[in-house]
Amino acid sequence: MTEQEDLEINDIASGSSLSKDAWIRLRKNRPALGGLIILTAFFAIALFTPWIAPYGYEVQDLNLGATGPSQDHWLGTDIFGRDLLTQIMYGGRISLSVGFLATIVALFIGVTWGSIAGFVGGRIDSVMMRLVDILYALPFMIFIILLMVVFGRNMLLLFLAIGAVEWLTMARIMRGQVQNLRQQEFVEAAVAIGLSRSVILVRHIIPNAIGPIIVYTTLTIPSVMLLEAFLSFLGLGIQPPETSWGLLIAYGAETMEEYPWLLLFPGFFLAVTLFSLNFLGDGLRDALDVRGAKD
């Protein structure tokens, strides 16, 4: 009997659950599992950067200038003589923080808005979703730029500004899920025993829509990171002495003909992170799709 057969027998003997079945399917998806491992490694590096970075964040040698990869500086140095690997590690802390925290803001607003609209229905639903349609028509990039110019450039405003424009699609997805779930028998049973609308929504409907929420969250994070990188590229995102992958790419683009490594290495780490998130999102979508798994 093979090890795989032993695992399947143990799974059957110990019972099955949605989370366990999803994890088994996710393990079989190599790109998704690889993306999860890479993201976990990047988060660990970002968390421990102050202790594991090869040089201090403020260390620079103007006499050294921009040099290519070497034994002392694995990814080279920038025009100020700062170690590029150290800059990428600290920039990853900012980029990952913006991506995840801004997504949490968008997730909270979108899930709350879509749940209420889908569950209440009627005129309230119509008004709430027409407002979403109106907001969709606004040029949000200009809106974010105006916010950054008027209120200044700081991390908190960046989280709120990006999160405030990324919740619209989540609201539509959540509304559709809630409209489908509220017709299910378990919701009708909860109504029959006298549970309040808020209890039904929070305890019964939203938990049953967690699959699409998780999947869309993993797909929102890359778009948020790209938006932050674009804002930093325009000079409206993270400002020195702080740095991010987007800011490093902006500096690298200015000197790419003379010092190509200043663009290639930050771009590589950003691209790997975005690919990993997309692979993980696709894998979670397949793993949490019960109907697809039965097929």
Structural class: mainly alpha
**β-strand amount:** under 5%
The count of domains is 1
Low-pLDDT stretches are: 1-5, 11-15, 291-295
Q: Compute the gyration radius: what is it?
A: 23 Å
Mean pLDDT: 81
CATH superfamily: MetI-like
Sheet with the most strands? none
β-strand number: 0
CATH class: Mainly Alpha
Distance between the termini: 26 Å
The CATH topology is MetI-like fold
Give an overview in words.
It is a single chain. The chain has 295 residues and is an all-alpha fold. The chain has a single domain (35-290), classed as MetI-like fold (Orthogonal Bundle). It is 74% helix and 0% strand. The chain contains 15 helices and no strands. It has helices at 3-13, 18-28, 30-47, 49-52, 84-120, 122-137, 140-151, 155-163, 168-181, 185-192, 197-208, 210-233, 245-254, 261-288, 290-294. The longest helix is centred in the middle third of the chain and has 37 residues, at 84-120. It is elongated. 33% of the residues are buried. Mean pLDDT is 81; it is low at 1-5, 11-15 and 291-295.
